[in-house]
Write a structure and sequence with these properties.
Blueprint lengths: L7 E4 L10 E7 L1 H9 L3 E2 L4 H11 L17 E7 L11 H6 L2 E8 L2
Parallel strand pairs: 1-3, 1-4
Antiparallel strand pairs: 2-5, 4-5
């Protein structure tokens, strides 16, 4: 596994899209999350409110790019974790997302 070829993402959920071994570490401090973004990461954030929240809290631009990603071995993702499930069909704007209990975590595909 070559660190130079590992992909890095920003996700608004820790959904596993493939079989394998994964590690979800956290919660991360805001500084740790900023450091992850400073090393470069591709956004897979599908909701404007989540992108705006991450951008504001981490003071880094995060675009809305509704795309599916599959982590390969060694890939990592910064994950925005909502700590309470949203009611069905509910989408949060930036202000609601900021008030919703949340944290950041690091998802790594081990194999």
């Amino acid at each position: 596994m070559n660190p130079a070829t590992m992909a890095r993402y920003i996700l608004n959920s820790a959904v596993l899209t493939d079989y394998g071994r994964f590690c979800l570490a956290g919660p991360l401090t805001l500084e740790q999350a900023r450091q992850f973004l400073d090393q470069g990461a591709e956004s897979a954030i599908g909701h404007a409110g989540a992108a705006q929240l991450i951008s504001a809290e981490l003071q880094r631009p995060v675009e809305v790019q509704r795309q599916s990603v599959t982590l390969a071995e060694g890939d990592q993702a910064l994950v925005l974790r909502l700590l309470q499930r949203l009611p069905e069909g509910r989408v949060l704007d930036a202000a609601e997302a900021a008030a919703w209990p949340h944290e950041y975590a690091l998802l790594t595909r081990l194999e």
